[in-house]
Structures are given as C-alpha cells and as structure tokens.
Amino acid sequence: MAQVSLTPHDFSTTLSISICLGLLSRELCTYVKSIVGVDISQGVVDFFNLRASNQGLAPEEMKAVCVDLKHEDHELRGTKFNIIVVRRALRSVLDLAHSRAISARWRIITSPSIQDVTNLLASFLQPGGSLLVADIFRDTIQTDIFPDQDADGHGHIVAHQRGFDEEEMGTTFLAAGLRLQDFDVVTSGKMHGKDVDFFLACGVKS
Q1: Which of 78, 150, 160, 168 is the most exposed place for a label (fewest CB within 10 A)?
Q2: 21-31 pLDDT, tens per residue?
Q3: Model confidence over 51-74: pLDDT tens digits?
Q4: Torsion on CA atoms 39, 43, 48, 53, rounded to nearest 10
Q5: Which residues contact residue 35 at a Cβ distance below 8 angstroms, ignoring those fewer than 6 apart?
Q6: Residue 165, exposed/middle/buried by CB under 10 A (0-12, 13-18, 19+)?
C-alpha cells in the first residue's frame, strides 16, 4: 500500500471485501481506527472474529459480518467508510441465479458487471473516501487464467479472465463517481501456474 497516495483522514474506518483468512485486515488494523470485514461464508467470518479476539482486538476495532451486499438500506447499518479494500473479488462476480447451485468463493450482486460491483462499493464510501482494488495486471498475461472452466460448466464465474489495465480501471472508476488517483504494479506472483503481475489502484470519491 506504500505506493498508493492516501490523505491522512482516509486511515479511519475501513471496509474489507472478501476477507478470506483476514491477513490483509490484520496488517491494516495498526493503521486505521476500525475495520469491518465482509464475506458470504459464516465459517470464514467466525474464524476472522476469533482471530481478532485472540489478538485482543475489540469488535469496535476489527470485526467481520456475513452479508451478501446488495445495496439495501439495512446493510452495514448505513455506515459509510473512508477506505474500501477489495482483492481479486472484482473478477469473481457470479450471477446470483446460478450461484446457489455452484460452490463459489464470492458473490456480491445479481449482475456480473464489473461496473455494477464498482458502483455498489463506491456507494459505501464517504465523500473523499478511497476504493483500493488489487487485481491482476492485464498486460502481463496473454491467456485465460482458468482455461478449463467451461469443461465443468463454470466458465461464467470469472468475468475478467485476464485482469484489468489502467485505462479500464480509470473508466470504471469514473462511471462510479470516482477519480483514479493511483495505479501501480506492486508485485508479481503465480496464479494457477501462470506468471502474473498484480496492480493496486486507488479511486477517490468526489
């Protein structure tokens, strides 16, 4: 996160999407006032909260909730956040009509549109807040990351097989009322046996 410029007030209330084991949230907790993690798996949420409790963190400092975000008024008690962090979840959007029959890591809205997901996340930001997206940098991979999906009928799960580039993130952010402040390739690694680069993009809400 050091390569992305954020103003001091951003380090306050943070929403972390698709928390997995909570490793990112535990790294962030020393820099922010509070973190709310969101996942659709109750088991993941329970594990996250247990780890937070074992660290001596109160729920007011770090907690997770099990919710499938749909931008309904009762979600997250209407809280608006200074920072929203999402890692790779933009590519893993499922059509809710199919998701009940498929074992999937993350489903966030009924439409598979990346724009819809970004619009939804931006709606939880305070004015001046930042949406941080970490995902695969498109320019470093020329083939689908999950080439065998169609064989088992799950080819629709990953909407953007080859990640994103700076232009697409900028256009998507702009349509959601965000300004692309930073876009940096921050690290490299492997995913399903393929060498990939990962970027970190920061969009600021007007």
Answers
A1: 78
A2: 666 777 777 77
A3: 989 989 899 999 999 988 877 767
A4: 140
A5: 14, 15, 16, 25, 28, 29, 61, 62, 63
A6: middle
Alpha helical stretches, state H, 29-113: 42-54, 96-99
Residue 115 corresponds to which amino acid?
Q
- Per-residue model confidence (pLDDT) at position 50: 93
Both tokens of residue 150? 């169609």
Q: What is the SS3 assignment for 182?
A: strand
> What are the residue ranges of helices labelled H in the chain?
23-28, 42-54, 96-99, 114-122, 166-175
Residue 186: other Cβ atoms inside 10 A: 14
Task: Give the gyration radius of the chain's Cα atoms.
Answer: 16
Q: How far apart are the first and last CA of the chain?
A: 21
Is the distance from CB of 191 to CB of 162 less than 8 angstroms?
Answer: no
pTM of the model: 0.76
Instruction: Provide the residue type at 105 as one letter.
Output: R
